[in-house]
Specification:
The complex is a heterodimer of chains A (about 500) and B (about 140).
Chain A (H helix, E strand, L loop, with lengths): L1 H8 L3 H18 L6 H12 L4 H18 L1 H7 L11 H9 L3 H35 L3 H19 L3 H15 L2 E2 L6 E2 L13 H22 L21 H7 L1 H16 L5 H15 L11 H25 L5 H12 L6 H6 L1 H29 L7 H20 L3 H18 L5 H23 L11 H29 L1
Antiparallel strand pairs in A: 1-2
Chain B lengths: L5 H21 L9 H19 L10 H41 L4 H22 L12
Classes of the chains: A mainly alpha (about 500), B mainly alpha (about 140).
Chain lengths: ~500, ~140
């Protein structure tokens, strides 16, 4: 109790103002396609120089939580995920918006994100040291299986398009091999182009696949006079995005809890982040759902589960950062820098020498998530008017934002070319009925898979049996094999049904 | 060959390219070297493409020359931005991209298109350079 009171003494009006400003900034940046939560957090670092430790960390937490949620907004309204974490359920949210359910979709996403964030906070506060110890047991063998489980989610999400989903997934992995090979330093598929040495960033690729392919589709339809103007969706009257959500969310409480816990656990694994958390939760949610056929074509369950998971993973990613100083993702790496700067050296000693500050951080996590409700409510009600605007006006602005968003990743114009190529590729793939989201998953998990697979094989002298020897690795391998078998069985069943 | 088989053929050729490129350029780095992953990926692509070709897909796909006209113009417009932005700067080059697109498809008057285009470009320029501190190419003769 004394600890809690000491922690509360750090939370003053300045801290709350910082949280509000951080949330507003995060909402704005996260809603712009191409600008990630990491970028939003990095942009706030200079401001932390002038703040006390707790407000400085509050700023980081608020920006992170709000920008991850904000990625859902352009995903739902324009079919352009603001962050890679939102790519998993963008088809569901946009389909529902086209059906005139913008308020409901944005309300569901917001409330689930906040609940997920709170679940993650509770787990962070009570289990941080234990979870971090567990996460440290993961070696390259376990990470290889985890990457494969993550990749297998793409085929689960795809439903009847398994082979097509697998193709685009592997295409994403292939794209991730471009650039320097981490082990040998050998150039791969660069063809002498310097800009390709660092590889293909998945942010311009994601912008191209979703925003540019959508823009091309719009102009092709306009040229062919296929009446695109009639596709402007209806919009619900009123500002209340929370209307009727209570019963839906209480009905889905088990799913939210499951996704929140799963998101936190995945977030706690160094190298895994909100993107992977959202995909795995989406896939698990689909497998356990009574209506898996709705996934990908407007499932509320999908939005609830995946969005609660990606916000929960944010709290999870702080676990290895705080306890061992190991970043859970790139945003946590920046936060570790801020911790050092504020004389809060991350590690087990943090719990000994600065416990009150640490618990103040946990309380801020909860406050930032709760404050997100009214702030995002206002932001969403302003932004949702976008869908009423003529697409002929929206698309040129989207294209310009996409160009600038792609450029801003490395301040490199070659990212715009990558965006364009991926846009054209995405357009043709969609015309031929290939899902494009797995490409992003492949690009995110490809390097993680390759790094851990090759490290493991080198350690084991090429002995593949080593992947099954360690206990956690063994469990993960069984999970992966089960997922693959279930997928094969359901495909055979589907083919047999069709042949009848 | 029907149009809907084109992607599968493209994927098979792409998979073959990955395998051949890896065999010729990357296998010198050893069994678990730079060529290991691209070879596995190339093989997986070919396998998945064959399965995809064999599976039935009843969706009709029709891509005609009108698609290619629009895509070519679109690519030209973005490449114009890529090559000219360092000479003309962000504001002017963006104008050449945004305004024609808006004029072509937006259901509003020319004057309105000009105002919206200019407003959007200036807002994006200000927001990215002043708030997000992203260095966008400047217009040489406006400085």
């Amino acid at each position: 109790m004394d600890m809690l009171l000491s922690a509360l003494s750090y939370i003053n009006s300045m801290t709350i103002i910082v949280v509000i400003v951080g949330c507003l900034f995060g909402l704005f940046v996260g809603a712009i396609p191409g600008l990630t939560a990491t970028m939003a957090i990095a942009l706030m670092v200079p401001f932390t120089f002038f703040l006390d430790p707790v407000p400085a960390l509050s700023l980081m937490i608020a920006v992170g939580a709000s920008s991850i949620y904000a990625g859902d907004i352009p995903g739902a309204l324009l079919n352009i995920p603001g962050t890679p974490a939102s790519a998993a359920y963008v088809e569901d949210s946009h389909t529902l918006v086209l059906e005139g359910k913008a308020n409901r979709v944005l309300g569901l996403g917001l409330t689930s994100s906040v609940i997920g964030g709170l679940i993650g906070t509770i787990i962070l506060a009570f289990t941080a040291p234990y979870l971090a110890k567990f996460a440290l047991k993961f070696s390259t063998f376990e990470y290889t299986w985890l990457s494969l489980i993550g990749l297998s989610c793409a085929t689960i999400v795809a439903g009847s398009k398994t082979s097509r989903s697998l193709l685009t997934l592997v295409l994403g992995i292939a794209l991730s091999t471009i650039g320097f090979d981490e082990f040998t330093g050998h150039e791969r598929f660069t063809f002498g182009m310097e800009s390709l040495l660092q590889g293909v960033s998945f942010i311009p690729a994601m912008i191209g696949l979703f925003a540019i392919s959508g823009a091309i589709d719009f102009y092709v339809k306009t040229y062919k006079k296929e009446n695109v103007f009639s596709t402007v969706p209806p919009i619900e009257k009123g500002m209340n995005i929370f209307k009727g959500l209570g019963s839906r969310l209480s009905h889905k409480s088990v799913g939210i809890l499951r996704s929140g816990v799963l998101g936190t656990l995945i977030g706690a694994l160094p190298g895994a982040g909100s993107d992977i958390a959202a995909w795995i939760s989406y896939a698990l949610s689909k497998k356990l759902s009574k209506h898996p056929e709705k996934y990908g074509s407007g499932s509320e369950e999908a939005i609830i589960d995946a969005s609660s998971s990606n916000n929960a993973s944010l709290a999870g990613s702080w676990i290895p950062s705080l306890v061992f100083g190991i970043p859970g993702d790139s945003a946590s790496a920046i936060i570790i820098g801020v911790l050092f700067m504020k004389d809060m050296k991350p590690g087990p000693t943090l719990f000994l020498f600065n416990p009150e500050k640490l618990y103040a951080v946990f309380i801020i996590f909860a406050i930032a998530n709760i404050i997100l409700l009214p702030l995002a409510f206002l932001a969403v009600n302003v932004l949702k008017k976008i869908i009423k605007i003529d697409n002929g006006i929206i698309y040129p602005v989207v294209i310009l934002c996409s160009i600038v968003g792609a450029f801003a990743i490395n301040n490199d114009i070659s990212s715009v070319v990558v965006m364009l190529i991926m846009g054209v590729l995405g357009y043709f793939l969609q015309r031929f009925d290939y899902p494009i989201s797995p490409i992003i998953l492949g690009m995110i998990l490809g390097p993680m898979l390759e790094k851990n697979l090759i490290s493991s094989l080198l350690k084991a002298n090429g002995d593949y049996g080593a992947f099954f020897e360690r206990p956690v690795s063994g469990v993960l391998s069984v999970i992966f094999i089960l997922i693959v078998l279930v997928q094969i069985m359901s495909n055979i069943r589907r083919m047999m049904k069709k042949s009848k | 060959m029907t149009q809907k088989k084109i992607p599968a053929v493209f994927f098979i050729l792409f998979g073959l390219f990955l395998i051949i490129y890896s065999a010729e350029n990357l296998w010198s780095t050893g069994l678990f070297g730079a060529g290991f992953m691209p070879t596995i990926v190339g093989s997986a692509i070919i396998l998945a493409a064959i399965v995809d070709t064999l599976s039935t897909n009843k969706k009709r796909v029709k891509i005609d020359c009108r698609d290619f006209t629009v895509i070519t113009l679109f690519i030209g417009l973005i490449l114009f931005y890529v090559f000219m932005v360092s000479y003309l700067g962000f504001i002017i080059t963006s104008g050449f991209v945004v305004f024609p697109l808006m004029l072509y498809a937006a259901r509003c008057r020319v004057r309105t298109s000009v105002i919206i285009s200019a407003g959007a470009i200036l807002f994006i320029y200000y927001f990215f350079t002043q708030v997000l501190l992203v260095q966008l190419p400047e217009t040489p003769f406006l400085n």
